[in-house]
Amino acid sequence: MKISAAVTRAVKSSMTIEQLELKEPRADEILVRLVATGVCHTDIAMRDQAYPVPQPIVLGHEGAGVVEAIGAGVSKVSPGDHVVMTYNSCGHCPCCIDDAATYCHDFFGYNFAGGRPDGSSPISNDDGPIHGNFFGQSSFATHSICHERNIVKVRDDAPLELLGPLACGVQTGAGAIINVLEIGVGATLAVFGTGSVGLSGVMAARLMGATTIIGIDLNDDRLVLAKKLGCTHTINASGENPVERIMEITGTGVDFCFETTGAPAVIRQAMESLTLRGTCGIVGASPIGTEISLDVVHLMTAGRSIRGIVEGESNPDIFIPALIDLYMQGQFPFDKLITFYPFEDINQAIDDSESGKVLKSVVRMNNVE
């Protein structure tokens, strides 16, 4: 079938919306008509080769839409179902079997290889294949092929155009707080970076009962929103030393830090902000080879720990519908993070996301024939 898709052909270059051919779903695949797709900084990192993905490629991995067709072996969803597409995984490695699919032994192969596990791509043009299957979906397109492992059926009374960011950015932030750090009533938390991931963590921490939530950023507008969404204190790191200010607020440091920037200097500040036995969770997409420097005595003698986190360690089939329920109840207002763009303005959506002008860009496909 003919589709429109945004094709990435070069590093740090604009995507081009092109007419492509999408093959029919195989027996174990699902065809989804996209309603909207979130723009994630991972898409930008892949465009710019922070991780080596093949080009030309159709990126996009926060897709929300409606199932149009299913392969003969698919039973999880049916045509007409409203769905969100999230990360993919193999389903049979030790981590997947242990319900830890975010650490799938072949996570890179199933999400970043630019094709199916057999090397093929469902997308092509007259010159031949275009790399696809990014995160098992390649959802910067009007239609996408995905899989039972990475599709989540959602309630049909929720606003579908809002739901794509739950697949990655929002799931990562909220999941880190709820599933991994397990922040409890009365806890203290510092969130380094109040973008969409960090603010998802702020909202989750408020739900979990944290009583001191400190947001750190360089952008005053983001810090104002952070206060509205649950932060009790904010720090603009361009004018204040975050570690010193956190110590003033808490006395001995925070129980938990959530570091979203991936910057080594900021990770160190987060670690230095922890109280005894505190834990720092890190989720920033640092380039391969990035190293951090920590004071070993500060880490070891006070029982502090640092924890890498992928996709909030979520089971998407459980966690994404739960976040939607919380949103519909007015308890998790992630819609405050979102700015919509027509699909044809995807490059503007990416630029505004990259520059920090907006928190979470979402492109809507309804203007594309």
Relevant terms:
single chain; 369 residues; Quinone Oxidoreductase, Chain A, domain 1; Rossmann fold; seven-stranded mixed sheet; 11 helices; 27% helix; globular
TL;DR?
This protein has 369 residues and is α/β, with parallel strands linked by helices.
User: CA-to-CA gap between the ends?
Assistant: 13 Å
Order of helices and strands: EEEHEEEHHEEEEHEHEHEHEHEHEHEHE
Q: How is the CATH topology of the largest domain named?
A: Quinone Oxidoreductase, Chain A, domain 1
Under the CATH scheme, the architecture of the largest domain is: Alpha-Beta Complex
Q: What overall form do the CA principal axes indicate? A: globular
Number of E strands? 18
User: Largest beta sheet, briefly?
Assistant: 7 strands, mixed
CA gyration radius, whole angstroms = 20 Å
Find the structural class using helix and strand composition.
alpha/beta
Low-confidence stretches: none
- Strand fraction equals 25-35%
Mean pLDDT: 96
Helix content: 25-40%
By CATH reckoning, the class of the largest domain would read: Alpha Beta
